[in-house]
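hey so u asked for the seq, here:
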Amino acid sequence: MEELLEKLLKINGVEGALVVGKDGLVISSVGNFVPDPDSFGASVAELLNHLDGHFQARGVSQRVTLDQQQGTAHLTAINEVTYLVTQGGPKVNLGRLRLDSDAVAAALGEQL
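ran it, structure tokens below
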């Protein structure tokens, strides 16, 4: 699993990648996260549950991108209960990140 996540670290500007369940438990992580991967994973789970609660008529979230002053967090659904999350700097190539995240999430889906 770490080998697949490390592919995302090769994208210029990506600082870390992790797999997190909707319950907030981190299954695997590589790279650096601020805060630590476990706190970041818990925050992601809280965000996803909040979004899905507000937009439940449209189904569960498949992709979420948060652009902030200090960087970007990109979430891609692996399956109904697991997400691939990347954290990157403010100049990360979002197009490449989205394409590669989709490919990695599909490969992770076969493993989970």
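The chain is about 40% helix and 30% strand. The CA atoms of residues 63 and 76 lie 5 Å apart.
lmk if thats what u needed
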